[in-house]
Task: structure prediction
Amino acid sequence: MPQRDFFEVLARGIDALRADVPLAYHRFQTQFGPLRASLTAGTDTRTLWLENYRLVLVNGVQAPAIEARFELDTIDRLLDGEMTLLDAVQADRLWIRGRPEHVERFFDAFATFVTGGMRSHAMQRLLQAFRGVRER
Result:
């Protein structure tokens, strides 16, 4: 099924991580769990946090500890290994604002999500469908 919405793919990817790679999900939950993040993917901004093992998404910016902005092709490059998070920040392809300890948690959670996602067949299918829809 084609996936057009980055945030839907993110939520389903976190569910896939929980089902397919529970140790990685537990680590992700420990790292990201205390945070509320506002992400802007292209022109779409949502605030998200984990609640009862599920990702909660609300439109707009709502009291986040972390704010991040990026274009969707940056996500492709990160997932393909063409760049690291640090590369993306230094190239102004990823903008992050927050207290240093929150930024560190965000980085760690993202790295765990990507690494765990490489072991999840369901997440790989989601990302492939998402990329395919955007390339049309």
Observations:
- The beta strands are 37-41, 44-51, 54-59, 66-70, 94-98.
- The chain has six helices and five strands.
